[in-house]
């Protein structure tokens, strides 16, 4: 007898809210064509109306009502047959609120389950971002740039149907390609979308990720305190006074204490790179950063605390010096280490590093800055117009 | 001299008598308690408190920040924030004014701000109605506010001091609403004993918010975003504080008796002629007056009737009240409030009493009455009728299933 199958879509708040919903709706509607029953829902607690915040949507498909209820009785499934990451940078982990800790993107993927990622990066690069798992799983990469839109607008670039098309390939138990195509036709009445789904079905291949393959870091986590241990009065410690920064014999500047329970960096898709030699010490980045990410170095320049940065780009926008603070694609970074320390250790090497990073400025950002930017992107990156294959 | 008569002499010597209303008595208590911040927005009958405070300040008798806000919502918010920085505050309202502040009222308990507020009980403005009704305060009955109903101006003064002592106890840190019936208490002046400052100082320690005080030397964030991962624990903490309040109220009344020489009996409810009573009425607030008068008369005729006045509604002393009420043959509960569509179509108090009795082995019949809504008088014949109906229930061993409306035109 058929079993209940759980699919999870991990997406970015606001920018991909409609995308995630479309995918989950499509799964349930397609499964219905086969007489199955399903539910599509968002993780309510994520509050996905926050820019870029990692959030989750689920589709559960069951052979009958009783089986579905069995799974619905537990709001969020413990394991998934397929997890879909619609932004490859979410492979670095998911932290939607304080105290959640960092959840690996593949955390819920069951033994031999599948992780689908939309990305222009090769599978190997993505695996390096994903945390290791004790059980094997499969990875399917759908070549695409992240389909970011807004709260009120939806960018219909076929990312939704391309992912739907990949599903019967990686998980035939879930639904057949035929049903997926029927559901797409019914939902969108667009033959090109139906074709996109079929093409992706044909092109999708998986690669097994072995236990131990990937980022070996243990993701940070916290224990939620019980009511007898929690501070009363809905009160938490304010940000404590910080301390000076030491580097070799040099001591000075100021590093404030930061919220240890909410690091926020999984929200970002780009991060600032600082060219310390260009800095005129105007303080604007430090003043304007909405998350107080900058530390004052003993040189009186400003160093990024990359664990706290959500990648909003304000620092780049306010810096009065050209190419002094520059937003760079998050994919170019493997860790959250101090840029200023690297600079102090070897200025020449640092300059080379900066120059290299600056070649990876984000084409994608939170939304688009001018009309036609999206078309430019797809032309440059080799994905067909509208994202259709 | 035995200790009791020593206290009596001390009392007689030190207290001053004044002819003041219930609201004025609360105002005097805020002076004695050296309240730092008073926030106000006029609505009848609560405005009698703000008027008297203004007078005390103008006369140089009281030293406090007195802030007239632009609405009740702001009034309660300002008082809340004053409490957060460690200032003792007083606030209050009536009827729909209290309801307008509900957003602030609802979060005050979770933030553990020991704000004291006077509710001048008032109907919820079915066009313009301002007579007394308890639904205003009762709208906040489940949220973690302590609720106490007083029936004399003296009790209003004493209870205000008590409210600060209990609310500001670290084991509690919950807000407290003192309900005073509009007109009967807020607009009637009676002789009240005003205690000397030294007694009050001995009774009421300064408000010390400790590690929860919002101050540059104690950097904290109050009320950050909480979601489902936090809220249940926060509720449980508020629940624990309310449980603690029961013991703290006992302690406060014990200490009050020692220093002020009055306030005998159980703090949570007053018993009137219950010793050998067969039937009793139960109620809250100033309807105690006509009820007591009728009971005295019936007692003269040899009838075994009594009255139990619930003072602290939250926390509710279900254990002792249940044990007491289970002794009688029948109980009549008078609600000066309504709870449309509730079990037996009763008011709020009657169903609390029914629930309280459920844990008892002996459960006498409960007759529920709704009377005195919108400030209508609870008359002597009305009280007699309620006692008569309760007696019939005692004789039958069974109460009428439905709630009885008393004094309503058919
Ligand atoms: S991108 Fe810049 S301004 Fe925005 S959070 Fe990061 S450091 Fe702060
Ligand atoms: S805004 Fe630019 S120039 Fe100004 S302090 Fe920051 S990095 Fe330096």
Automatic annotation (TrEMBL), chain A:
PROSITE patterns in the cross-refs: 4FE4S_FER_1 (PS00198), 4FE4S_FER_2 (PS51379)
Alphabetized UniProt keyword annotations: 4Fe-4S, Iron, Iron-sulfur, Metal-binding, Oxidoreductase, Repeat
Listed Pfam families: Fer4_21
InterPro entries, per the entry: 4Fe4S_Fe-S-bd (IPR017896), 4Fe4S_Fe_S_CS (IPR017900), Pyrv_flavodox_OxRed_cen (IPR002869)
Entries under SUPFAM superfamilies matching the protein: 4Fe-4S ferredoxins (SSF54862)
Residues annotated as domain 4Fe-4S ferredoxin-type: 270-299, 300-330
Gene3D superfamilies to which the protein is assigned, alphabetical: 3.30.70.20, Pyruvate-ferredoxin oxidoreductase, PFOR, domain III (3.40.920.10)
GO molecular function terms attached to this record: 4 iron, 4 sulfur cluster binding; metal ion binding; oxidoreductase activity
Top-level taxon of the source organism: Bacteria
PANTHER family in alphabetical order: PYRUVATE SYNTHASE SUBUNIT PORD
The protein's name in its UniProt record: (4Fe-4S)-binding protein
UniProtKB/TrEMBL annotation, chain B:
SUPFAM superfamilies: Thiamin diphosphate-binding fold (THDP-binding), TK C-terminal domain-like
All copies of domain Pyruvate:ferredoxin oxidoreductase core, residue ranges: 277-380
InterPro entries membership: PFOR_II, Pyruvate:ferred/Flavod_OxRd, Pyrv_Fd/Flavodoxin_OxRdtase_N, THDP-binding, Transketo_C/PFOR_II
Any single GO BP term: carboxylic acid metabolic process
Keywords, in A-Z order: Oxidoreductase, Pyruvate
GO molecular function annotations of the record: oxidoreductase activity, acting on the aldehyde or oxo group of donors
Keyword NAD part of the UniProt annotation: no
Protein's UniProt name: Pyruvate ferredoxin oxidoreductase
PANTHER family per UniProt: 2-OXOACID OXIDOREDUCTASE (FERREDOXIN), PYRUVATE-FLAVODOXIN OXIDOREDUCTASE-RELATED
Residues in Pyruvate flavodoxin/ferredoxin oxidoreductase pyrimidine binding domain copies: 31-252
